[in-house]
């Protein structure tokens, strides 16, 4: 019997490269890859046009859809993008703000209320820093271009104010004094350009992020991999076979990083950084599967519901193809 051809769209991650290029094979599946530089192109096409059989998806948008029972795709517990987000607070260089706790009563810019990074950042701000999210005036606009529509409907809690700005971008608002802080996954352009007008609010953010992980066990998941429900209905075996193939592709990438004999990636001291990460996480630095990630997922669902991104309370088991829930990846 011929393999089942399935289109697959994601960013150009090294940990999916072997699967996309055929060095790792998902049993019974012919992967037709389409790799992109930015995830937004994938999210837009997958959610609005259902262009792909398998696609990378924003975790925030995904829990919104599941909470509204509006998801045409269902995730498997594969998490291609994970980024700690205490580093995602940006302020003007001359700001008198000294810590995130000082954001009470301030104007804070966001690109989307449902942006996954912002959900984690607000969760940390509320639960770990004690800042009432209702005390903040939220301003929504694009990072580098004015105006950015909310991609998913939100059910804002009573007292939360989000004001759209269609005239200025977050980068411009930081420089012209329109906001006190920007909370964004993509650093504002002045910060990316190194022009000195914008800095991170948390100066030693990596130290803070490591401490947060040690204290809570939360290692933020940004994106998930989802499969069209029509594919799963007709070929239920696809979910587990994909999960196992993604896992092998990821392990190959980690092995390249930890080999240490040459520069697998153009990052100075990359091998030492990989060793430090392995020690911190106690083994797999990018675990897939439900159980190794339960703490992070439960926390994200709690944040998302409290912030009105998820319209009802969800459990981790509500998010993934049932056959993958108890799969132990070895």
Descriptive account of the structure:
The chain is of the alpha/beta class. It has two domains: 4-82 and 221-324, Periplasmic binding protein-like II (D-Maltodextrin-Binding Protein, domain 2, 3-Layer(aba) Sandwich); 86-216, Periplasmic binding protein-like II (D-Maltodextrin-Binding Protein, domain 2, 3-Layer(aba) Sandwich), CATH 3.40.190.10. The chain contains eleven helices and eleven strands. A six-stranded mixed β-sheet has the order 8-7-6-9-5-10. Strands 2-1-3-11-4 form a five-stranded mixed β-sheet. The longest helix is centred in the last third of the chain and has 22 residues, at 238-259. The radius of gyration is 20 Å and the shape is globular. The mean pLDDT is 94.
Whole-angstrom Rg:
20 Å
- Kindly report the spatial arrangement of strands forming the biggest sheet: 8-7-6-9-5-10
* Helix and strand element order: EHEHEHEEEHEEHEHEHEHHHH
Principal-axes geometry comes out as globular
Total of DSSP H or I helical runs spanning 4+ residues: 11
Second CATH tier, the architecture of the largest domain: 3-Layer(aba) Sandwich
What is the CATH C level class of the largest domain, in words?
Answer: Alpha Beta
Report helical residue fraction: 25-40%
Beta-strand content bin: 15-25%
Which whole number gives the mean pLDDT?
Answer: 94
- Count of structural domains: 2
**What can be said about the biggest beta sheet?**
6 strands, mixed
Based on helices, strands and strand pairing, what is the structural class?
alpha/beta
Distance between the termini: 28 Å
Annotated CATH topology of the largest domain = D-Maltodextrin-Binding Protein, domain 2
- Strand tally is 11
Poorly predicted runs of 5 or more residues = none
CATH superfamily of the largest domain: Periplasmic binding protein-like II
